[in-house]
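Recall the central idea of this unit: under ordinary conditions, the amino acid sequence of a chain determines the structure it adopts. In this exercise we apply that idea directly, starting from the sequence alone.
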Amino acid sequence: MRAACVSDYRALAKARLPHFLFEYIDGGSYGEVTLERNVADLQAIALRQRVLRDVSAIDTSTALFGQEWAMPVGLGPVGLAGLYARRGEVQAAKAAAAAGVPFTLSTASACAIEEVVGSGAPAWFQLYFVKDRGFVSTMIERAKRAKCGALILTVDLAVPGSRYRDARATGSGLGRIAQYLARPRWLWDVGLNGKPHSLGNLAPIVGNSAPLADFQAWIRANFDPSVTWKDVEWVRAKWDGPLIVKGLLDAQDARQAAAAGADAIVVSNHGGRQLDGVASTASAVPRIAEALGGNCRIFVDGGVRSGLDVVRMLALGADFVLLGRAWAYALAAGGGNAVAHMLKLIEAEMRVAMALTGTTTVAEIGADILDRQATA
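Accordingly, the structure predicted from this sequence is:
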């Protein structure tokens, strides 16, 4: 099957990945109410269709942090992506660079930051707070040396969410081996030829063994529930590039992030993987945009499955959209080439949505293209 949309890439990823890896990408926390709400609330946003306007020249580009991007879209941080395809983060970073959009490397990546940027693909870096501030400081310095274009500080993982699917699917021993053998293409591409299988950025402290189980144990032992806004200010003092604070759903928290020195915030509920039952990101964006009043750039993730969804998020008040599962599904389905194709699909879908709402530039996409009555 040739993928025509992100949903097709999800189906292909499910058919190619070992069961526990697909569940890790696809699942949420608890009963997955927020995971489903992210998608449903966004798809329920109605747009005003406009006609007889000159939309012969559509421009999807946008400026951010002094750089021009082909779309207001980036690849957000996704953990363990190097297990979805051979050296997966490197493949995805190269695809993003070719498409003219940013790629964000997760702290929990299989490929270390030096390997990704050493491949010639630029990257942003996503950082978690851990108890060992020496490790956090070292990662900031590594990101500086790698000339990362921005630092994304994730703040909604003081404790890990309860992810039932992971617990059911992880398996061990013969059960894990059976999952590998059921996916021979993955086993050859990644299992045998994608080594080393380690958490590249964390290898010095967690070792080079099987990353999924080790990473989950490491989170529980090392993530720091005592973090406050003073710690964000500490990071701000150490990082002189664009700082993006990720994991906000509350307007007051968004204002505090701006006060702590953030250049942008990411409206995010961790893809429905942390606290279940909270608001969808689509519902949170408008009130956060109102609270910030243009004083801080607004990114958003969660539930975005098309270029139409990107336009919806921009109309709700976001400046930039981060893709998560969308690129992870594509990477798992067909490596970097599939990620490149997925980004082309997103751009084409954006162009259609812009043309049919009578907008020709990203700056023109705003609340006036929302059909409030139909959405209500």
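The chain has one domain: 6-375.
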